[in-house]
Task: structure prediction
Amino acid sequence: MGFRILGIETSCDETSAAVLSGDLHVLSNIVLSQDEIHAPYGGVVPELASRQHIRSIGYIVEESLKQAGCSLAQIDAYAVTQGPGLIGSLLVGVSFAKGLAYFNRKPLVPVDHLDSHVYSSFIENPDIPLPALALLVSGGHTSIFLLEEKLNCRPVSRTRDDAAGEALDKIAKFLNLGYPGGPVIDRLAEKGDPGSFGFALPRMRDRSLDTSFSGLKTAALTHIRQAKIDDRHPRLFDFLASFQAAVIRVLIVNMEKAVDAFAPRSVILCGGVARNRKLRTDFLAFAERTRLKAFIPSPEFCTDNAAMVAALALEMLRCGSPPASFLDLNAYARRESGSPPA
Ligand code: KG4
Ligand code: ZN
Result:
């Protein structure tokens, strides 16, 4: 049996473990969502999330081994998300991975969550032409990264307030549409007319590539109040389609500006919101207009998953990044000034 790596991801409210072979083949990728636990609160409750990770992690790791058809003794290295994320949730994964690596005397590679989202695009397309610009859209982040090399992922844009997924989730919560709101809006917006409610594009005063969704959110709340929109309103689908289209327009316009500034050879879309069907279609159309190759991971690699963690760790091992001295390894909640803490 060739090289095997086991990855663990617990940064937010998904407990995930995956086994990959040394040649980037995904042998298993088990993801247990906690959506049902957090749905009554309309958002992730950190304390409940970490407790649920503790309950699930052992079983999920076992399941990932079983599906991959191997035993712990056959795992040659471990990888874990170190941050950013919810600190209590991260600590469950980090502690579990430390225990496994220490007991089995194998290396442990700590991985940054944002880097692993970007790296998810290489699982199915290892030869993406570089430099590439990667748009990462998730519940916690809306950023553009410039990749000069696979492991050199430099942030060139971020959000000044809400992330795209957060904006979608908040409006869905306000209308009692369920949690997480992104997939619900994706489904309902399909039945609506995206041109029926007006949303002005937010403008950044400076020439920065940063995004902001607070203006769109305020505009959405104004429409909701004026048209008295609720979850049974006849124009609900039109409203959701218009709001979703506005969020996507902000993302694409920003990518257009970034492409002008950095002249990449390809563009990447990743993160949980990259599951959105209209965003996927519009992103491909944008790439075609700008004559760039576009890469979007399959939906299961967009939302939080451990396959992307193991995949990035494999590349780090291949490039000789020294594995952590794992008993000192600690989780971090924030990624300061773009690069993971040393
Ligand atoms: O990457 P992810 O699993 O976790 C973070 O790192 O944040 O992303 C979760 C986000 C949530 O905001 C969720 O509403 C959004 O991804 N999302 C979607 C879709 N599926 C998940 N947003 C829009 N359309 C979808 N189909
Ligand atoms: Zn994520």
